[in-house]
Automatic annotation (TrEMBL):
Residues 3-180 form the CobW/HypB/UreG nucleotide-binding domain. It comes from Candidatus Ruthenibacterium merdavium. Transmembrane segments: none annotated. SUPFAM superfamilies: Hypothetical protein YjiA, C-terminal domain, P-loop containing nucleoside triphosphate hydrolases. Residues 228-301 form the CobW C-terminal domain. This is GTP-binding protein. It holds the Pfam family CobW_C. GO terms for cellular component: cytoplasm. InterPro entries: CobW-like_C, CobW/HypB/UreG_nucleotide-bd, P-loop_NTPase, Zinc-reg_GTPase_activator.
Length: 325
């Protein structure tokens, strides 16, 4: 999972930019919104699919304080929960407009591991408010600019050359090294938006190999249906114990009896949650030595076939130990 932090002071246009980023790239996004108030507003806006939308966003909201300070432990836990359950290709983190970007980045660095990559942070800056906010909210505002590796100037369409030049000089005094985009981001091509998703922290470009699960097989299955929840439990126990191959990741949703359920498998752990009825049922399995025919047989046949039907008692005991771990 790659994490892209998109910062900016109140009203700079972060939410609008995130929608454009999702539309231009069509990538697998989840978005963590840090709303600094009792009621979250941006989450419902982001989750709306506009006429030009090409990506459905999975929105997570934190509304009980700022992720750069008072709720940083909850923030870290939420990031790990998203990584271990949803596991999107990209997680977009939108801090509150009055948060310190440097502290948000520091909090994420503390939980980085081989499956989490921190991308170069972006700050959206309202050019009209630059002088005022720099004077009135200097500590927070300057931090958001100085800690950014890409700065996008917004709301300056139609400004004359002298105004833009003066603004650029002021921004450069606070951050001389960032990639500064004075032209509105909507004028950029799709390759530029893709570049933001492959720009590692400190500016290095991530190699294509870092985007792939090298050497692993994957299997997509549709048309799934099970008669009752016990069958799904037995199936998932088979998945985590290696019955269907060395599966390191699996997720899907299907009708089980009269309900729809979603399952998610990471390593040797699985979760089951209820969801609203979907138009179709599907699942994906990623790992080594996948027993493709058996996976389809168990999930697609009307007649239930237990995945542990050929196991000896000793083998079943060994697998149970693995599951309990």
């Amino acid at each position: 999972m790659k994490i892209l932090v998109i910062s900016g002071f109140l009203g700079a246009g972060k939410t609008t930019f995130i929608k454009e980023l999702a539309r231009r790239t069509g990538r697998d996004f989840a978005v963590m919104e840090n709303e600094y108030g009792e009621v979250g507003i941006d989450g419902p806006i982001l989750s709306q699919d506009g006429p030009d939308s090409s990506a459905e966003l999975n929105i997570w909201e934190l509304t009980e304080g700022c992720i750069c300070c008072s709720t940083k432990s909850d923030f870290a836990s939420s990031l790990l929960t998203i990584a271990n359950t949803v596991d999107p290709e990209y997680l977009i983190v939108e801090p509150t407009g009055v948060g310190f970007l440097s502290k948000v980045m520091e909090n994420i660095r503390q939980i980085q591991y081989e499956h989490i990559t921190l991308l170069a942070p972006v700050t959206v800056l309202d050019g009209h408010s630059f002088e005022r906010y720099q004077a009135e909210f200097r500590e927070i505002y300057v931090d958001q600019i100085a800690a950014a590796e890409t700065i996008l100037v917004s709301k300056m369409e139609g400004a004359d050359c002298d105004t833009l030049a003066h603004l650029e000089q002021g921004i450069r005094r606070l951050n001389p090294n960032a990639d500064l985009v004075m032209q509105h981001y909507s004028q950029q091509d799709d390759a530029w938006f893709e570049g933001l998703l492959n720009k590692g922290e400190n500016g290095q470009t991530l190699s294509p190999a870092q985007d792939m699960l090298a050497g692993l097989e994957n299997l997509g299955v549709t048309g799934l249906e099970l008669a009752h929840e016990q069958q799904l439990l037995v199936f998932l126990q088979g998945v985590v114990s290696g019955v269907f191959g060395n599966i390191c990741r699996a997720k899907g949703y299907l009708p089980v009896g009269k309900s729809w359920l979603r399952f998610d498998v990471t390593d040797r752990r699985y979760t089951i949650t209820g969801i609203e009825p979907m138009e179709d049922s599907r699942a994906v399995f990623i790992g080594e030595g996948l027993k493709r025919a058996w996976l389809r047989e168990v999930l697609q046949k009307k007649r239930w076939i237990s995945p542990i039907r050929t196991k000896t008692r000793t083998q079943a005991q060994k697998e149970k130990i693995g599951i309990d771990k």
